[in-house]
Amino acid sequence: MISKQFDKATLTYTLTMQSTLILAIRHGETDWNVNNRIQGHIDIALNAQGLWQAQQVANALAQDMVHAVYASDLQRALVTAQHIASHHHLEVDILPNLRERHYGLFEGLTWAEIQASHPEDAAYWKDRVPDWTPQNGGESLNMLHQRVEHTVNQLASKHLGEQIAIVTHGGVLDILYRMATGQDLQVARSWALRNTAVNRLMWTPQGLKLVGWADERHLEDISRDDKSA
User: Would you state the pLDDT for residue 209?
Assistant: First the structure.
């Protein structure tokens, strides 16, 4: 069996021809992230901090072996992915199935506004009821899980023995973490989903395994003030 050894700081893992390594990355920051406003399928651009984060994660992954870069078609993910792909002379493969969860009528609102205007729906969301579907075309957690599982299995199976980057959204990453660790959809989240953190997963036909989560060293090494020096 052919294998490739990787050593990234303290992280060591083995990639065989029966597995695919996935770098799962959340998009850079937007103004709506800062204001805690629900984006969902609304196409919001990166802010200045988000563009800086995209460049930093691209620099951090420049020496990695990346065979393909996939991204949501929403610009906050796509632009982040384009920064990463440029270091590897790759084009970004755009997949709408990597979009954030569709939050229906919640989109464009803050949590406070949702609680005030839709208290019953807010309670369903807070309790993570798996089959609750937001009004106005939203997705339930079960629907999101099915979409993410189908998409990651489809992508990873095409890249056995390779490493790919997937640039997506917090809701999608939450599902990937649950898939890799066996966490139920209703379990309260205790793991980070920060903008442009690098999350490493190993895929085999048997499922996902967690390799490393929330690597943010590229955001700590250089401050915003230092980047123009």
Answer: 97
Are the C-beta atoms of residues 85 and 166 closer than 8 Å to each other?
A: no
Q: Report the percent of the chain where pLDDT is more than 70.
A: 89
**What count of Cα atoms within 13 Å lies in the side-chain half-sphere of residue 181?**
18
pLDDT for 224: 44
| Residues paired with residue 70 on neighbouring β-strands, in sequence order | 93, 166
Give the pLDDT of residue 15: 63
Q: Can you give the CATH number for the domain in which 133 is found?
A: 3.40.50.1240
Residue 195 domain boundaries: 16-220
Count of structural domains within the chain? 1
Residue 111 included in any domain = yes
169 is catalytic: no
Angle between helices 141-157 and 170-181 (to 10 degrees): 80
List 27, 41, 102, 118, catalytic entry: 27
3-state secondary structure at position 202: strand
Q: Residue 106: inside a domain, yes or no?
A: yes
- Token pair in block for residue 94: 């755009």
Active-site pick, 29, 41, 83, 100: 100
The residues of the chain scoring below 50 in pLDDT are: 1-12, 223-229
- Cα distances (angstroms) measured from residue 121 to each of 36, 109, 110: 18, 13, 14
Catalytic (active site) residue 100: yes
Q: Which residue has tokens 């506004």?
A: 113
